[in-house]
Structure formats: structure tokens, C-alpha cells
Amino acid sequence: MRAIQITEFGGPEVLRVSDVPAPVAGDGQVLITVDRAGINYADTHQVEDSYLSKTELPLIPGAEVVGRTADGRRVVALVGSGGYAEQAVAQAPYAWDVPDGVTDGQALALVLQGTTAWHLLKTSTHLQPEESVLVHAGAGGVGSLAVQLAKRWGAGRVIATASTDEKRRQVLELGADAAIDGTPEGLKDRIIEANEGRRVDIVLEMVGGPTFDESFAALARFGRLVTFGAASRQQAAALDPGRLMKGSKTVAGFWLADCFADPKLLGGPLAELFDLTAAGDLRPIVGGDYPLSAAATAHQDLRARRTVGKLVLDPSH
């Protein structure tokens, strides 16, 4: 079968189409004919071996797929790796039926980015009614869903960062109350200004480096910042415990992989997100549909912040 298989670590240039043996489902697994594979920012780290978990070669990237099982079910599944291919294997508890009214691309946007946004707001920061929320990369896969969910769940004011005027217009259309430039220089002041002169209660942060530092400085008393990525590939300044005590601030980390041990931690939120999407109350954004042969271009676009929403690969081309 056709797949993207990497045999050396590096940037997008190592993503090449190969002919590899088709996978075989074992006990407790399902074989899926892939209609679309999801692309995640974490994939760019995995390909260069800079991810939280170490990667072994050879590797077929891709953590999630949507497609058909042998008995005709349309499912979205987490596969860990192996998604950038014509066929993939998933553990049966991690393959969920996709309801009518939810497209393939939407299902892929929800299974990782959607459940991440759900847990960031519900589990990690415990969003309360009328609290202010800052969402970094508001036009991205997680951010575009987090903006909508925060508003739906009663946030008082939602502020999103985005890198271009067009992306800032898009996050406003999704329901953000304000959209600002996410450039680190002067970011703290822009955050406070966008929140009408007040510091923010919650920050969803996935950039790292000085963006983390500026965001932390903009936290209100009893504010919570959750970090779930490091897109800048930079480290933030060390956090002295005294900086947490002053203002009674909380910094949390979130990695969706820590939910993988219990499928209910994914299936429950996913069912809720499916229902909201099918009812038209949540709008997952599919920002790019690339042929398998253009996987390298997709990674280049993602790393250069040229994309919005969820990116997917079509293994038939």
C-alpha cells in the first residue's frame, strides 16, 4: 500500500511516499481503509524526533484516521502512528462511530483537537461562568474549537491571538470578543488592553518561550495557565515558586496522550462534541485537504503558520 514512511529524522523533506506492506489487524484491533488522515502539529515534532515521547524508525506518521472498517462502519480512530497511509490499524476501543451530520474532516478535527480543547477548559483550568479566557493560535485546530466552546460554556470574555489580520477576522467570526497579534513583544499589555484593562483568568498556551512568559504576566489573581505545546520550539523562563504564590496563580500542563489509558476520557467528550457539531452548534474548521503525496507541503504550511483549523491528508492521491 502507499504510505508516508520516514527512515531518517528531519524536517518536511523526509516525508516521502513509499510502498509498504499493508497492516494486519490482531486480536482486539480493527483494520480501517483510510478516507482521510489527520495532520497535527505534534507530527512535525515526531518527524524530527523532538516530541515528548521518543520516536523509532522507520515510522509512518499520523495519529488519527477516519474511514471504513471491514463491516462497513464509518469510524474515526486514534492509531498512535501509521495514519499517513491507505490502511491503518486501531485498537477497537479507540475507534468511534461517526454520526450522520459530521463530515470526515470534522470528525478528525474533533477526535484530537476537539477533545484537547474540551479537557483544557473542563479538566485543566475548570472554566467558571463569566471568567475571561485567552486562547493562543485562535485560528488553529485546538484554538478555533476552544474559542467556540469557551463562549458556549459561559466565558465572560474570550480573547484570541492570531498571526494575521485575516486570521484575526476569522476568530472574531467564531465568537471571540477580541483578537490580537500574538507577537511576544508587548503581548502582556495587549492582552490586558483586549480584556478591557483587566488581567485574564485563564490562558490556553501552546507557543512556549517568551509567549508563555508574557501570558503568565497577564494572569489575574487565582488565574490558571495551561501549557499544551511549544510551537516556537523555545523554552520559557524558569518559574520561581514565589511567582506562583504572588497572585495565587496556577500553571498546569496537558498532554492528550495521558488520556489514552482510559478510552472514556476521550469517548465521553467526543460524543458531546459530535452532538454539538451535528446540531450546528459547533463548527470545526477544516483548513486544508492535501493529497498524500503533498504531506511535506502540508507540514511546511503548518510550521509556517499559513494554515487555519484542521489539516487532513487524502491517501487516494
Report what the structure shows:
With 317 residues, the protein is an alpha/beta fold. The chain folds into two domains: 2-97 and 285-314, Medium-chain alcohol dehydrogenases, catalytic domain (Quinone Oxidoreductase, Chain A, domain 1, Alpha-Beta Complex), CATH 3.90.180.10; 113-257, Rossmann fold. Helices cover 30% and strands 25% of the residues. The strands form three sheets. Strands 3, 4, 5, 6, 7, 14 and 15 form a seven-stranded mixed beta sheet that branches. It has a six-stranded parallel beta sheet with strand order 10-9-8-11-12-13, sandwiched between helices. The chain has a two-stranded antiparallel ribbon with strand order 1-2. Strand 9, helix 4 (165-173) and strand 10 form a beta-alpha-beta unit. Helix 2 packs across helix 3 (141-152) and helix 2 packs across helix 8. It is globular. The chain starts with a strand and ends with a strand. The model has no long low-confidence stretch (mean pLDDT 96).
Q: Which key terms come to mind for this protein?
A:
Quinone Oxidoreductase, Chain A, domain 1, 15 strands, 2 domains, globular, about 325 residues, 9 helices, six-stranded parallel beta sheet, Rossmann fold, alpha/beta, seven-stranded mixed beta sheet
Secondary-structure element pattern, one letter each: EEEHEEEEHEHEHEHEHEHEHEHE
Q: Total number of β-strand segments?
A: 15
Shape: globular
Helix content: 25-40%
Indicate the multimeric state.
single chain
What's the CATH H-level homologous superfamily of the largest domain? NAD(P)-binding Rossmann-like Domain
* Number of discrete domains: 2
